[in-house]
Q: What sequence folds into this?
């Protein structure tokens, strides 16, 4: 018999039991559920709503249940529907009447979302931690890359030479923004719904601030209807996950390309590669591919909850029970992806010679040759056309623009002098890009220092959060 069966004459149809239950998903939240119940019971006693003896019996009973669940000794019964009723009915079996007083002034509606908020905070922290791990690996790789250059691309076509460190730092900045989104998701979850009860608050003299403080929430939610029906905090978490997964999919794709025979820019370690069951020679970048692929499910998790929430009237609706599975999945998937990616980056071998060799193709100096003409007085648009013809000539000769004889340059424009070789020198081209945020070694060094400073700030804010216990 369900705990709510009083007003029913017949039992529920057997087909609805599994369908209606959230226990298979929310059993993962047993610690949060028990912490919430302990805080609620302590507050009920402090307010004189239940006796101190009952509160102590409830606390001891809940602690025993937590131990038994952790030890795998307590087998859940799907008839209990969700973790809240599973814990409460077990408590009542163990401590009798006191257990039956626990739900005074509380509803599963505020209880469920309290558990979920506690879980969301813990998940956000794990994501932030994993985010820092990958940033650290990328910063190390950027430091190690030194002045290694590779062809920068647009449209996946050779464009202009860039420092490999510069390329890696672009990902560090994406992850820096991801960290801020994860932190924002933590803050969004950091408010207590307890005391909202079913939807309207209760007539018992609850102390909402006491339970909030006990559970480590920064504040209480202002409106009881909003408290039980808001799932924005999970959307924030899933959005932070989705954007991060998208960033990781881009890096995953680059790793797949870079480790191919055609590029050969990096060699993945054996520890982060796989073989083929039929082709003995294969060394595949499976994990980079999988990270690229996992983005689909994480974006799916976000879209699922957005669509579930759309059009729901206030306050709680059973639809909302569909909120937890995707959020848990998105957070776990992105945390794992970040960790695997960090391992891949910190163990790859960079083939600087292959990057250098790739610079011979694609006329990477073309923009700078046009700039040379501009510096000698030619309007840029005209210079663009002159260099376009030089590229065409180089293509006809199957060589790079930098390999054309000086006579060909002179024939194209009499502004070209012997010093054109300097405009064709790829290291000089890189060194000239001194714009703040540009690819010149000194600019990249300054950028590296700023990225590292941001990393250190985030690392210390993480240390503060880590000091706070999770439920
Ligand atoms: N299991 C539900 C959930 O996860 C909580 C129960 C909400 N209350 C209710 N009357 N159905 O959302």
A:
């Amino acid at each position: 018999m369900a705990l709510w069966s009083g007003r029913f004459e017949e039992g529920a149809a057997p087909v609805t039991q599994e369908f209606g239950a959230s226990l298979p998903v929310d059993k993962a939240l047993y610690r949060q559920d028990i912490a919430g119940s302990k805080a609620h019971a302590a507050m009920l006693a402090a307010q004189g709503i239940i006796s101190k003896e009952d509160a102590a019996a409830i606390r001891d009973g809940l602690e025993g249940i937590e131990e038994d669940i952790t030890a795998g000794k307590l087998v859940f019964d799907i008839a209990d529907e969700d973790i809240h009723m599973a814990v409460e009915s077990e408590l009542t079996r163990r401590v009798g009447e006191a257990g039956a007083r626990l739900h005074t002034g509380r509803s599963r509606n505020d209880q469920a979302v309290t558990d979920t908020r506690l879980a969301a905070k813990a998940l956000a922290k794990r994501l932030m931690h994993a985010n820092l791990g990958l940033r650290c690996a990328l910063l190390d790789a950027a430091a190690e890359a030194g002045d290694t250059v590779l062809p920068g691309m647009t449209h996946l076509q050779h464009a202009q030479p860039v420092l490999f460190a510069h390329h890696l730092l672009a990902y560090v900045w994406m992850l820096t923004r991801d960290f801020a989104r994860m932190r924002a998701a933590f803050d969004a979850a950091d408010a207590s719904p307890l005391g909202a009860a079913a939807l309207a608050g209760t007539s018992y003299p609850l102390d909402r601030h006491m339970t909030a403080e006990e559970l480590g929430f920064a504040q209480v939610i202002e409106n009881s209807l909003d408290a039980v029906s808001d799932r924005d905090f999970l959307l924030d978490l899933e959005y932070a996950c989705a954007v991060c997964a998208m960033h990781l999919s881009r890096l995953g794709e680059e790793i797949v390309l870079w480790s191919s025979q055609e590029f050969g820019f990096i060699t993945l370690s054996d520890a982060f590669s796989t073989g083929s069951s039929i082709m003995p020679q294969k060394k595949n970048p499976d994990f980079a591919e999988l990270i690229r692929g996992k983005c689909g499910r994480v974006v799916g998790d976000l879209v699922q909850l957005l669509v579930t929430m759309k059009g729901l009237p206030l306050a709680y609706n059973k639809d909302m029970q569909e909120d937890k599975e995707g959020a848990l999945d998105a957070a776990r998937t992105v945390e794992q992806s970040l960790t695997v990616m960090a391992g891949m980056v910190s163990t790859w071998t960079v083939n600087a010679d292959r990057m250098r060799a790739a610079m011979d193709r694609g006329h990477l100096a073309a923009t700078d040759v046009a700039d040379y003409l501009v510096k000698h007085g030619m309007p840029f648009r005209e210079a663009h056309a002159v260099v376009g013809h030089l590229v065409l000539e180089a293509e006809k000769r199957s060589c790079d623009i930098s390999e054309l004889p000086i006579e060909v340059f002179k024939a194209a424009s009499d502004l070209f002098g012997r010093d054109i070789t300097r405009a064709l020198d790829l290291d000089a081209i890189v060194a000239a890009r001194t714009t703040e945020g540009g690819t010149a070694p000194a600019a990249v060094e300054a950028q590296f220092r700023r990225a590292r400073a941001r990393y250190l700030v985030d690392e210390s804010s993480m240390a503060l959060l880590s000091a706070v216990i999770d439920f």
User: Anything to note?
Assistant: The chain has a mean pLDDT of 97. The first strand starts at residue 149 and ends at 154. Residues 109-204+218-358 form a domain with the Fumarase C; Chain A, domain 2 fold (CATH 1.20.200.10). The CA atoms of residues 160 and 364 lie 5 Å apart.
